[in-house]
Amino acid sequence: MASHEQTSGASSGWLPDLLFTQGKFVAGTALFCDDQGKIVRLSREANDLANARRLPSRAILPGLVNTHSHTFQRVIRGRTEHRSKADRDTFWTWREKMYQAAARLSPEDIYQGARMAFVEMALTGITTVGEFHYLHHQADGTPYTDPLLTNKLVIQAAREVGLRIALLRTAYVRSGFQQPPDPGQTRFITHDPEEFAAGCEELDRWAAEKYPAGTVQVGVAPHSIRACQLDYFRQVDAYARRKKCPVHVHVSEQPAENEQCQAEHGATPIALFAREGFLSDRFTAIHAIHITGEEVRLLAKHRARVCACPTSERDLGDGAVPARQLLRAGVPVGLGSDSQVQIDLLEDARLLEYHLRMQSLERLILAPDPEGPGTLANRLFAAATRSGAESLEIGDAELREGSFADFFTVDLQDPSVADPDPETLLTNIVFSAERTAIREVYVGGKQIVAHGRHHAQEETVRDFVQVQQRIW
Ligand SMILES: [Zn+2]
Prior knowledge:
The chain is α/β, with parallel strands linked by helices. The chain contains 16 helices and 17 strands. The protein has helices at about 45-50, 90-105, 105-125, 150-160, 195-210, 230-245, 255-265, 270-275, 295-300, 310-315, 325-330, 345-360, 375-385, 385-390, 425-430, 455-470; strands at about 10-20, 25, 30-35, 40-45, 55-60, 65-70, 125-135, 165-170, 215-220, 245-250, 285, 305-310, 335, 405-410, 440-445, 445-450, 455. The strands form three sheets. Strands 1, 2, 3, 4, 5, 14, 15, 16 and 17 form a nine-stranded mixed β-sheet that branches. A four-stranded parallel β-sheet has the order 6-7-8-9, sandwiched between helices. Strands 10-11-12-13 form a four-stranded parallel β-sheet, with helices on both faces. The longest helix has 18 residues, at about 195-210. It is globular. The protein binds zinc ion (ZN). Zinc ion binds near residues 68, 70, 132, 250 and 286.
C-alpha cells in the first residue's frame, strides 16, 4: 500500500522525519487525530511511533491560511499585462479590465473559477481561506432567484476542494465620494443595509445547517470607505458586533482612496474608523499600505489586525506594507493572495520582508533582535498561518493537542530544500522552497493532496479552461 493514502477509522497517525510544533522542528514525534479531524496527541511513545504511518523524508507543518482572496479574479490571470489606452497604467486601469471580466461571469463560471483557485491553494499548502466575495447579483444588478446563490457556490467550491472557508460577505454601495455610478460595479451593490445584514444572517444559518462545525465561517466586509459610505458602514459594523464575527475592509491600498476619504470625512480611513469605534481585535485592514505612524498606533491600541497581499500588491504597483512599524507596534500581520496573479503564500511571506529591503537598502528588517525569541522565518511563517487563523476566526494553524489536523508536508529531498537540519529548515522553506516540495496536504485529518496532486485537479483544470474559452 502506498504510504500517503486517504485515511479513515477512529484514529490516524503520521510519523514524519520532522514535525513543526511550538515554533520549531522536532524529530521522532508522531501526530494523531480522531475521526472528528482534531489532533488527540503528539507522541514520542515507542508504541505510537510503531503504529503511525511513516512519512519518510518529510517534514510536517501546519496548513497555511490565505486571509484575503477574490477567487473570481483567477480568470484574468495572463490578461492584464498589456498597455491600455491610458497615458499611465495603474491599479485603476487594471481595475477596468477586472470589471470587464466580472461582468461576464455566470454563477457557474464563478463556481468554476473558485474551484480552480482553491485547488491551486491546496497544492501550495493552504488549508484555510478568507474569501472576500462581492459578485452578488446579475450583471444588471438584478438579484438571482436565490439572492445568496453566488455566496453559496463559493462556499460549496471550497468545501468540495476540502478547504476551510471564511466567506467575508461584502457590502458594496457606491462608486465613491461624489462619483457617478460605475456600471462595472452594478452587480456588487446591495442598496439596503438591512437587506445586506439579513443576507449575512441567512447565509450563516444555511452554512451551519449544511457543513460541520469549524469548516465554514461567515464574516462581513464593508468593501472600503470609498465603496461603503459611513452610515451604511455603521450598520454593518453593528451587525458584526451582534454576531461577534470578523470584519474585513480594504484600507489605503492606493493614495487616491485616502484623498477621497480626507475630502469626505476630514480624516484618513483608519483615523476615521478609530473615531467611529470600528477598530477591534475582530477588525482586519486589508493592505494598509499608505498609512501614517499615528494610524499604526491606532491599530495597535485597538488590537486590530492587518493583512498584506505582497504578490498582488507588487503586480498592481500598490506599494509596500509598512510591516516593520506594524510588527514593532504589536499589530499582527497576515497574508493573502488577493488578485490571484500568483497563489503562493510562502512567496507572500518572503516578499513581506523583501519589499522593505528594496525600499531601505537593508536586510533582516522584520527579524527579531539577536537575543529575542524565534527567527525572521518564524515571524514570516506566523504571518502565513496563525495571524490568518486569528483574523478569520477559523482553523488553528498550530499543531498541538485539540487543534484541527490541518497540515502539509515538505519533501526534504526536493532540490529547492535538500535540508534535513531542524535548525535551518524553516528558513530554507520560507525563503526558498518551491511548490514542487509540497507533497501532501491534509485538512481535518483528511487527505486532499497526494504526491503533489489534488484529487480533483484534472477535472477542475479541464472545466476552468472551458470557462476561459467561453468568456474570452
Ligand atoms: Zn482585495
